[in-house]
Write a structure and sequence with these properties.
18% strand, globular, 39% helix, Spore Coat Polysaccharide Biosynthesis Protein SpsA, Chain A, alpha/beta, seven-stranded mixed sheet
Length: 246
């Protein structure tokens, strides 16, 4: 079993080199099949820094993939998934917010427990969210913790992008989201289809350089629609005992 790491990157010249350095130093080379950096219509020197790291770390099979569809996190992620050839996929934010050491733990847990998805949770007992918008933090906590309670999904942070999953489960999951809620969509649809999910605790840090593409007012509508869609589909499954392909 091996791993594809997908890193969507839009104008991340200040951070992309640091992220790839961190992966090279903190993730076991034995588990990495490839690192796909999806250059999402960057207009700065992001591509130059990616190429530098490709030469510096040939053992990690770093590849630069261009998002040849409309710009945005969701399309960049779909492009990476299409190109991925590993058994497992983890997507990593280019802004340095994720605790990269957790990738080794996630890989071992998914193997040992025969999981389909493992989520890095900011809202589990030992999880933490450091910095960033208080409103955004409250919103993501509410979504994750309430869905854990209402539909019994075995993670309190289904909206977090930092997850590892088996690529083969995507054969039964169609991803329709056009925004950051795509991470939540994948998780809740997998749960509704009966795939095995668990979580580990993680610590999330607000980015130190650059600016986030996440816009609260613009992005929240996608999460809200998906939130109520998920609850409706869950109770529909409870009542009728089945669910169609998602």
């Amino acid at each position: 079993m091996n791993l594809t790491i997908i890193v969507p990157a839009h104008n991340e010249e200040a951070l992309i080199g640091n992220i790839l350095d961190a992966v090279a130093s903190k993730v076991s080379v034995d588990i990495i099949h490839e690192i796909l950096v999806v250059n999402d219509h960057s207009t700065d020197n992001t591509e130059m820094f990616i190429q530098d790291k490709m030469r510096e770390y040939p053992i990690f099979n770093i590849r630069s993939i261009s998002n040849d569809t409309s710009p945005g996190f969701a399309n960049a992620l779909k492009r990476g998934i299409k190109e991925a050839t590993g058994d497992l996929i983890v997507y990593l934010m280019a802004d340095g917010c994720d605790r990269i050491d957790d990738i080794n733990i996630m890989f071992n847990r998914i193997k040992e427990e025969n999981l389909d998805i493992i989520s890095a949770s900011r809202y589990s007992d030992k999880g933490e969210r450091k910095g960033g918008s208080v409103l955004k933090g409250f919103f993501s906590r509410f979504v994750g913790v309430s869905l854990n309670s209402i539909i019994n999904i075995p993670t309190k942070d289904c909206s977090n992008a930092f997850k590892m999953y088996r690529k083969k489960i995507l054969n039964n999951i169609t991803l329709n989201s056009n925004g950051f809620e795509i991470s939540m969509e994948l998780c809740v649809k997998a749960y509704l289809l009966g795939y095995k999910i668990n979580e580990i605790s993680t610590v999330w840090h607000e980015r130190e350089k650059g600016s986030s593409d996440f816009k609260m007012l613009k992005e929240s509508s996608g999460y809200i629609k998906l939130y109520f869609w998920t609850i409706f589909k869950y109770f529909n499954k409870v009542i009728y005992g089945k669910i169609t392909k998602l």
